[in-house]
C-alpha cells in the first residue's frame, strides 16, 4: 500500500505540474483541440486513483474540478478568468494535499468546502441551461469510459480485489523520512498503448549517493595513480589505466543523470506571472526560450528561487500598468522574456522586460542616502554602473512597498545565491525601454580537472580547461625567460608570449635566484594567450570546486577553492582574474587604480601604440611598432652569409634576407644578434639590431621629419627621444631583390587608393601595407585635402581613411563622399586605433565598407582584396 | 520568544586575545579547534590568516589580533581557534585561549567608554564588568565588516 501512495504522490506532482501551463494556455484561448481533454484526463486520473486509495479529500476536490472541466470540454462553459481561477485554486489545494501526503502519509486536515461549493456553483450554472448535471463519476460517457480505460492501463490503476493486504500498513512517518528509501525502479508507461518504457523513475537520494560515491572513487583513483607513478612496480600500470578509463566514463555518465532541462526550474513561472498580472492589474506575456538547455540538478535547484524572485520583480517593478504603457507608446501587454543557452562550461540565462527600466535617479539618491557613494561619485558613474547598486544589501527602490517584492528579500539575496554557486549576475537597463538581467552559472558544481602548481611553497589549482600547454623554461636551457626591461617574455615557437609570474600577481616574496619561476603554464583567456610562471607543477587532479568565502570574493583572482586529496585547502586561480590583475599591475605604476582606469579609457580612439625599443649602431634608440614585427629571433653571426653584397641566413628551411638597422651594427664572429623578423605572406626578412631594450606603449608624435628613407622621424617616447624606423623601407629594400616576382606580376594595373591620415607616422605604416597589396597610394593629410584632390580630378578606386582627424573626421568624410553622386560608388575603409563594436557600428552607419584596427596588417590587406574584387590581394 | 531562546541570546563564550577578554555570542559559536593546518590566501585582507578544512567545509581563518590592530599571531597553525557561523558561512577566529560560557544579565551590559581605542569601540557592542576583569562583547557583523574593508 505504501508504495502505491508514494507512486501516486510522485505521479500526481508531475501531472499537476504539467497542468499549470495547460490551464494558462486555455485561459488565453489557445486553439489546441486536445488542450481541454488533456486537462480533463489528468484531473480525472487523479480523481480515479485517489478514490481507489481512499483519499477522500483529494477525491472530492478533484471530482468538483473535473465536473467543471467536463463542462468546458463539452462547450457548456466558457473558460473565462473566473473559471480558470477556480480551477487553479483547486489545483493548488490538490498540490497542498499531495505534498502533505508525500511528507506524512496522510491527507491532513483542511476545509475545502468553500472551494468545492464555488466549483459546483460554476458547474451547475453551466449545466442548468442545456442539460441536467451528469451524475457524479459513477457513470461515464462512452468517451470517458474509453479514456479511463486507456489511462487505467497504468499499473497503479489495476484494480486489486481485496481492499488492503492482511498486515496493517506501518505508519508512514516512521519509514519514509528515516532511511534512504530503497531504490525503486518501476517502469512508467509514457502513454497508453506504447511498449516498454525508455525511462525509469529513480529516487533522488540514490542519485546523490551515487554522485558522492563517484566523487570518492575519482579521488581514490587519483591517489592510486599517484602511487603508481612513484612506484617502480609496473605491473599495476595496465589495470590501473583501465580503471582510470572506466572511472572517467562512470563519472561522466553519472553527471549526465543529474542533468535536467532548465525548463524544470521555469515551469512555475507562467503561473506566477499570470497571478501577479491579475493582482497588479497588468497585462503580461511571458516568453520562454531555450528551456531544453540542460544543467546539473543541484545548480537547477539553487537557481530556482532567485529566478522566481527576479520574475516577480520584473512584473512588479519592471513593467508598467497598461495605461502607462499605452501613454508611452508601447503595447499595453508587457513582455517578460526568459532565455537560456550554453556558453562554454556555463549556462547563460537572460531575463528581460520591456518595461520602464530602473529609476536611476532614485537609485543615485538612495546610494547617496545610504552612504554607498558620494554625490560626486554617483554623478560620475555610468547608468549601468549605477544600476548595479540594486545588488547591494538592503537596497530596494520600490517607492511603495508592495506585497510582491517588498518582503525583505532583495536583489542582494539573489546575487548572493547566484554567487554561491559560482555564478555571476549583471544588469543593464535603459530608461523607458526595460531591463536585462544576465545570469551566468556553471553547468555543474561537481568535479573539474585542474593542474596543481607550486608557487612560493604553496599549492594552487589552475583549471585545466584554460591551460593549453606547459613549457619548462630553465636557466641556460633551450627556452629561457627573457626580460625586456621589466616585462618577462618567452619565445614560444613563432611568438613572443607575455608572461605573468604568479608570485608577483599574488604579491608573494621572490624566491632564491635560479629556484623561482621556471615553469610556464601557457593559458588562454578568450583569444588571448599568456604564460603564468610558477615554480613547478605537481599533477592534474580532479577537484570539487567550492565557492570562496564572501570575504575573499573581492580579490578577484580566485574562482573558488577546493580540498585536495591530502585534506588541505587549495585556492583555485582564475586565469581571467590573474590577467586582469597583471594588467592593473602594469599600469598602476603611473597612479592609483582609478587613474589607471581613466588612462585605459583614454586609449579608446587615441593612437597609442606598443613600440619595440631597440639599439642599433650609435645614436639615439630606435623604435618600431611591435605589431609590425612578426617574431623576435636571435641569429648567430656565423650563420649569416653574404651574397651579392646582401646578407642572408637560413631560417625555417628557407633563405631569409637580412638587413642591418643601422650602418653601425657590428657583426662580430662568434656572437648572436637579435633580429626583428617581418613577414609578408610566405616571405620574411630580418632586421638586425644590437639589443632589444624595451616594449613601451606610447603616443606617437613625430617631432622631426627625417630626411633619410629608413627613418620616419624622431619622436619623444616616455620623455626620451627615439628614432622611428620605417619598416616599409626595409621590407621594400629586400622585397625588390628577394621577394618572389609573382607578387609584382599580380600587381593590378593602375588601381589607386586614396589614403587619408593626419599622422605622417601612420601614413608611413599604412601606406606600405596598401602598396604590398599591389596598389598605388595617394596619401593625404586631412579629409579636406582628400576631397580637394578628388575635386581636382585625382582618380581613386578606394579610400582608406583614419577616423579621428582634426577638422573633418573619417565618418564625416565618408558621409560626404556617399552624398556626392560622383564618388558614392567609392568604397571606404575606416582605420582606427581602436575598433570596438560601437565604433564599427558607427562606421557602418556612416557607410564604411570595412572598419578595422590600424596596423592589423593581414586584416587590412584582406579587406582591401575583398573590397576591390575581383582582383584579389594576396 | 521562548525562555531558552532568550537565554541563548544573552550568553557569551569568553575568549582571551592578547590579555583582553572578549565575549562571543554563544549562538554563533560552532566549535573550538586545536592547532590546524592553515592554507594562506595571498591578497586576502590582512586579518585573514588563511583557510582550513573542517570536515569537508572550507573555513576562513581570521586573526583577531590583526583585526584588533595588534601584531599578527606569531604561528597561526599553533593557535586555538573558535569557529563561528555568520549568515551561513563559517569563520574561525585565532585566539589565545578559550574561557567559559557565561550568562550576561541584561542590566550588566554597558556601552564601551568613549575613550576606548576607536577600532575596538567599533567592534564591541558593549562592556561587562566581571570580578577582577572587563569583558568586551564582540560584534561579529562589525568584525567581518572591518576585516573586509581593511
UniProtKB/TrEMBL annotation, chain A:
<dbReference type="InterPro" id="IPR005467">
    <property type="entry name" value="His_kinase_dom"/>
</dbReference>
<dbReference type="GO" id="GO:0016301">
    <property type="term" value="F:kinase activity"/>
</dbReference>
<feature type="domain" description="HPt">
    <location>
        <begin position="1"/>
        <end position="101"/>
    </location>
</feature>
<keyword id="KW-0902">Two-component regulatory system</keyword>
<feature type="domain" description="CheW-like">
    <location>
        <begin position="447"/>
        <end position="584"/>
    </location>
</feature>
<dbReference type="InterPro" id="IPR003594">
    <property type="entry name" value="HATPase_dom"/>
</dbReference>
<dbReference type="Pfam" id="PF02518">
    <property type="entry name" value="HATPase_c"/>
</dbReference>
<dbReference type="InterPro" id="IPR051315">
    <property type="entry name" value="Bact_Chemotaxis_CheA"/>
</dbReference>
<keyword id="KW-0418">Kinase</keyword>
<dbReference type="Pfam" id="PF02895">
    <property type="entry name" value="H-kinase_dim"/>
</dbReference>
<dbReference type="InterPro" id="IPR036097">
    <property type="entry name" value="HisK_dim/P_sf"/>
</dbReference>
<feature type="modified residue" description="Phosphohistidine">
    <location>
        <position position="44"/>
    </location>
</feature>
<dbReference type="InterPro" id="IPR036641">
    <property type="entry name" value="HPT_dom_sf"/>
</dbReference>
<feature type="domain" description="CheW-like">
    <location>
        <begin position="608"/>
        <end position="736"/>
    </location>
</feature>
<keyword id="KW-0808">Transferase</keyword>
<dbReference type="InterPro" id="IPR002545">
    <property type="entry name" value="CheW-lke_dom"/>
</dbReference>
<dbReference type="InterPro" id="IPR037006">
    <property type="entry name" value="CheA-like_homodim_sf"/>
</dbReference>
<dbReference type="InterPro" id="IPR004105">
    <property type="entry name" value="CheA-like_dim"/>
</dbReference>
<feature type="modified residue" description="4-aspartylphosphate">
    <location>
        <position position="802"/>
    </location>
</feature>
<keyword id="KW-0597">Phosphoprotein</keyword>
<feature type="domain" description="Response regulatory">
    <location>
        <begin position="752"/>
        <end position="869"/>
    </location>
</feature>
<dbReference type="InterPro" id="IPR011006">
    <property type="entry name" value="CheY-like_superfamily"/>
</dbReference>
<protein>
    <recommendedName>
        <fullName>histidine kinase</fullName>
        <ecNumber>2.7.13.3</ecNumber>
    </recommendedName>
</protein>
<dbReference type="Pfam" id="PF01627">
    <property type="entry name" value="Hpt"/>
</dbReference>
<dbReference type="InterPro" id="IPR004358">
    <property type="entry name" value="Sig_transdc_His_kin-like_C"/>
</dbReference>
<dbReference type="InterPro" id="IPR008207">
    <property type="entry name" value="Sig_transdc_His_kin_Hpt_dom"/>
</dbReference>
<dbReference type="Pfam" id="PF00072">
    <property type="entry name" value="Response_reg"/>
</dbReference>
<dbReference type="InterPro" id="IPR036061">
    <property type="entry name" value="CheW-like_dom_sf"/>
</dbReference>
<dbReference type="InterPro" id="IPR036890">
    <property type="entry name" value="HATPase_C_sf"/>
</dbReference>
<feature type="domain" description="Histidine kinase">
    <location>
        <begin position="195"/>
        <end position="445"/>
    </location>
</feature>
<dbReference type="Pfam" id="PF01584">
    <property type="entry name" value="CheW"/>
</dbReference>
<dbReference type="InterPro" id="IPR001789">
    <property type="entry name" value="Sig_transdc_resp-reg_receiver"/>
</dbReference>
